[in-house]
Design goal:
Length: 185
Amino acid sequence: MMNKSKVFLSAIALASAALVSSQASAVEIINNTTLELVDNFAEADGFFAGGQKGNTFVDNYSFNLSQAGEFAAGIFSVTGNAKNGLDITAFNLIDSAGALFGGTLLSTGATDQWSLSTSSLSAGTYTLQVKGSILSNASGRYSTNIALAPVPEPETYAMMLAGLGLLGFTARRRNKKAAAAALAA
């Protein structure tokens, strides 16, 4: 009987050690990449090879804006079902002062989709951050896009107003000539 108790306790100890070692092997994968906006657009992909179940990841994509503008970004990951591939848990934009703009979760499960937009982004350095976890030993991939619609400079507004004023002046002058011709006839 004593022998069976030792075997049983040894089995419990071995199972506990295996459980603890599997939990201790989870790793946070951190990737830092610099993006260059070309024609106010950039895209990036995250890929995780198989065999990384239980790991988490933080991918940071840094980029510089040379002018203010409206910012929009989206991320998309398709895994086939909710138990495979990746689970995107956060999609954020961080400015150089550490202020955080959080994304909006559009769908989760077999397809993870997030969007993020702001209309008042000033020139400066920013980081687009993707956080998530790896759900299975299958490989996983996501794709993200960044777009910027620049806000016109004040000089552009001044030229536009001057052009509208010139059009108004020309239209009024034509109306006066047409009215004078109608009275003369």
